[in-house]
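dumping these here so i dont lose them again. two proteins, back to back, each one seq then structure tokens. dont judge the mess
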Amino acid sequence: MIECRLCHKQEVEPLIDFGKQPIVHNLLDAPNLTYKKYSFKLGVCPSCGFLQLTDYIAPEILYENYFTVSGWKNQPHVQRLIEVIKHTTGLNENSKLVEIGCNDGCFLTSLKEDGIKNLTGIEPTKDASTIAINKGLDVHNTFFNQETAKNIFEKESFDVLVTRQVLEHIADLDDFMQSINFVLKEDGFLVIEIPDCDGNLEYLDYTLWEEHVNYFTIFTLKQLLARHGFSVIHHETTLFSGKALIAIAVKDKTSKSSAQALDFELMKVRKFQTQWTNFCLLYTSP
């Protein structure tokens, strides 16, 4: 059995095998070249309900450069998000904020235009980080993990940590969350924006992506945060690249995960699996 990246139980069950697929962003340099294909399998942990890719591609392959950068996307929800962050965390011109996976710095720029001055970013891709740095932003071109967190920052440096459309890409969730805990002040706030997998489950949407190794709902996200000492104080959904889930959490050593809704979560997952099987049978029958 495969170990769950969230709860670490050796119980992850195969759910859907999409076969071997090429990387979406890796375009060919010449017509005579061929795509390299990778295994694309979705699994579920029956203990915590977490949906995840059981085989994933090394980050060094996926994130050297991006095909598109965030600044090219229409993000109409950003100004509201900034207002929500300010009202829930007390973010002001004296606060220190770091964005993990800041891409080309478009969100940091919006914060700067809103009067937030003490801004830092982390971005692993060369093309996006270069754009951000050329904007005059304080951005480090590196992956965010415990080693880089300790090398770049002091312990408990920031009041607010933002990570938008990043957590779904992270293969080592424990290392990522421990790194967040290292740089975030004891009473600090964590702002997460991720694709909401409830949208996939509700609408039977099978357009998954090899870069997204984790498929969170609010149920599984709360479990991850509780395991690492965070309590969610606000969450909402919005339309951005499909359905997006926004959660704001605070460091809370007393936080505990709850499995009260596990049966309902697994029921949605089983329906997702069954309908995929029915769909395949429909279109492969003679």
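---- next one ----
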Amino acid sequence: MKKILVSGDIHPIIEERQSFLDRSDIKIFTSASNEDALAIHKTEKADLIIAHMNSPVMSGEDFCSAVREDKELRRVSIIMVYPSDKKCSERLAGCRANAFLPNELDPNILIEKAQGLLDIPLRKFFRAPLGVKIHGRHVKKPFLCFSENISASGLLLETERTF
């Protein structure tokens, strides 16, 4: 299971998008600040953290340093969200994040960066929910099977017996 730790104000942007983040093998945690994100990361060991460069208690540079200097915490990808001003642009050079995105987040770019850093392949076909009960015959014996979803690549069936 992949774990993603997201700043609280960014979580709604991610939540409103239909994307790979909706998969059941991805768990999303929300933090109130960089300091909170660090505490959560210490217990959950996230695979990706999306944090803010300007956080009230702990700056983006201090957050990245704390993560990168800790042997148990450093194996994580970090996307740092920054305000578009000259002072902050100069500070980015000292921050050891994997990617930087401006505050005016384009949700598509954020999702694309996250997917790339987590190394999750794109789905070619999306599955749609569908409940189907099928009564069939195999070698003159009746069987029952169910399907919970369907996609352009096919119908996934579960049966009570192996064929």
